[in-house]
Amino acid sequence: MSDHRLNRRRAGDAAGVLLLPVEHAAARLAGAAELLPAGVAAALDDDGRLAASSKQAYKYALQEFYAWRGERIFSLATVELYVGAMRKRELSVATINKALAAVRWLARHWSRQALDDVSLSSVQREQVARQAERVADVPALRNPNAELLAGRHVKLGEFDRLMDACIADKTPAGARDGAMLMLAWSTGMRMGELLALSMASIVRREGYVELAIVGKGGKHRTNYIALDDGVAWALADWLDARGDADGALFAPINKGGTVELRHMSRQALQQTLQRRVAAAGLRAATTWHDFRRTFIGNRWSDKWDAATLSRYVGHASSAQTVRYDRRPEDARRDAALSLSFDYAGRNN
After folding, report:
1. Regions of the chain short of the pLDDT cut 50
2. Model pTM?
3. Helices 288-301, 329-337: inter-axial angle, 10-degree rounding
4. How far apart are CA 41 and CA 161, in angstroms?
5. Using CA atoms, how far apart are residues 98 and 84, in angstroms rounded to an integer?
C-alpha cells in the first residue's frame, strides 16, 4: 500500500487493531484534486466494470471525501460522520448515495490491496481487509420519495431565456453552450454522455444526423437529429467556431478564445450551466439532469410509448423512465380532462 501509511487506533480505542491509511500532512494541505492518490485514480481508470462517466463521477466524489476526511481514520464510524456532514449541507438523498457508492468502491479497492500486500502479516492483512469490508457494506440511504423529490421540470420559457443568453454571447463559448443546451433539451442525454461525445460520434445521413452515445455500463445507443431542426443549426454554429478536427465535440475554451480539443470536466460543465442560469435570470436551481427529466416528461406529453422512450434515453426498464416524470400537476390535470368517453345514459 505504497500511497499511504498504516495507523493504529488512537488512545481509548481497542488496542492493536490496524486501521486503514491516511494521507501525509503535506498531501492534506494540498488541493482536493491532489488528495486523490495516484494509485486510486489509476485503479479507477483500470476498472472495466465502470463506465467512463462513472469513473469521473467517482473521482470527483472521492476528492470531496478526501478533502473532508483530513486526519480521520478510514472506518465505518468516519463514513457515518461523513454522511451526517452531507446531511447538514442539505444534500439530496440521491447525491449522498452517489458519494457513498464512490466510498464503497474505495473500500473494496483497499481491501483487495491489503490482501495482496506482502509487507503486512497475514493477521494485519485480514484486519485491514475486514475494516474495509465494513465500509463497503454501508447501505445507501433509504427514502421512498427520493426519486419524486429530486430535480424539476424546466419550463419552455426558462429554456428560451437560457438560449437567449447563449445567443447574446458572440464568443465561441456562447455557440458551444447553446449547442450543449439544445442537445440536452432535445435528446435527454446524461451529463457524462454529453461530455463523452466526440467528432466521431456524429454520423451524417440524408436528412438527419445520428449521434452515437455511450451510456452507463458502456451500453451504446443512437439518437437522431433532423437537419432542418434548430438543434442541428445550433450544432452547426458551434462546429463553425470549433472546426472539424478530431477530438472532443464539446471542448474547453481558454482565456484567449482558443478551443482546446480535449474533453471538458464534469465540474467545468456544471459551472458552465450555472453561469448561463445566472445570465438568464432563472430563480430556480437547475441541473443538467433536469433537462433529462424534462425531455422525458415532454415525450410523455407527446404520447411516446414507454418502450420507445426508455430505449431512447438508455434506461434499463420503462419503470425507471416513469420515475423521471417531473411535469407540473397541471399537465396531469389537462391530460386527464382531455379524455372523452361515451355513455348513453340509463334512460336512453
Report:
1. 1-34, 146-148
2. 0.58
3. 10
4. 39
5. 15
